[in-house]
C-alpha cells in the first residue's frame, strides 16, 4: 500500500503509514512540495525527528542539504511575492530550481533575463563583511575627573 501511494504521487500520505525511521526520513525528504510551504515545513520536521532517532552523519548531511534547498525556494518565493520576477527567476536558475524557473519564465513571457553561460554559477549571496585584524593601533584612554566615581 505504501509503495502504491508513493507511485501515485502521494508520498505525504504514505509517510503516515511508515514506522521505520530510515524509510520515514527518505519519504519526508522526497516529498518536498514548494507550492505548499506548510507541508514542506512539516516534512522537514518529520525528517529532523527521524534524523535524531537514526543519528548518523549521512542523514544529518542530507537533511542540511534539503533544508538549504528549501530555503532557496523560500527566497525565490519572497522575491516573487515582492514583484521582483526577473530577480526571482535568476535566483531560481542559479540555485538549480529549474521547475520553479520554468514557471517564472512563463510568467515573465518575453522579459526573461538572459543569464551568462558559465561552467559553475556562483550563488547569489550577500558579500562577506570585512573583518578587522588585531594589528590596528590602539589608543590609550584615560579616565577624566567626572568618570572616576563610576564603576
Helix/strand layout:
Elements: H1 2-7, H2 11-15, H3 21-30, H4 37-54, H5 57-81, H6 85-94, H7 98-108
What does this structure look like?
With 151 residues, the protein is mainly alpha-helical. The chain has a domain of 80 residues. The chain is 56% helix and 0% strand. The chain is built from 7 helices and no strands. Helix 3 runs antiparallel to helix 4. The longest helix is centred in the middle third of the chain and has 25 residues. It is flat and about 80 Å long. About 5% of the residues have low confidence. This is Coatomer subunit alpha-1-like.
Summarize the structure.
With about 150 residues, the protein is mainly α. The protein has a domain of about 80 residues.
Task: Specify the structural class.
Answer: mainly alpha
Shape: flat
Helix content: 55-70%
Strand and helix order? HHHHHHH
Brief descriptors of the model:
151 residues; mainly alpha; 7 helices; 56% helix; 0% strand; Coatomer subunit alpha-1-like
Amino acid at each position: 500500500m505504501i509503495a502504491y501511494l508513493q507511485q501515485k504521487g502521494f508520498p505525504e500520505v504514505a509517510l503516515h503509514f511508515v514506522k521505520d525511521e530510515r524509510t520515514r526520513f527518505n519519504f519526508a525528504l522526497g516529498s518536498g512540495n514548494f507550492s505548499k510551504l506548510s507541508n514542506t515545513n512539516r516534512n522537514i520536521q518529520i525528517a529532523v525527528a527521524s534524523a535524531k532517532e537514526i543519528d548518523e552523519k549521512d542523514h544529518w548531511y542530507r537533511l542540511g542539504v534539503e533544508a538549504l534547498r528549501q530555503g532557496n525556494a523560500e527566497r525565490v518565493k519572497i522575491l516573487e511575492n515582492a514583484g521582483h520576477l526577473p530577480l526571482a527567476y535568476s535566483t531560481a536558475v542559479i540555485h538549480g530550481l529549474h521547475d520553479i524557473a520554468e514557471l517564472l519564465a512563463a510568467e515573465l513571457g518575453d522579459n526573461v533575463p538572459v543569464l551568462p553561460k558559465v561552467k559553475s554559477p556562483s550563488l547569489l549571496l550577500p558579500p562577506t563583511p570585512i573583518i578587522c585584524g588585531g594589528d590596528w593601533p590602539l589608543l590609550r584612554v584615560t579616565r577624566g575627573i567626572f568618570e572616576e566615581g563610576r564603576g
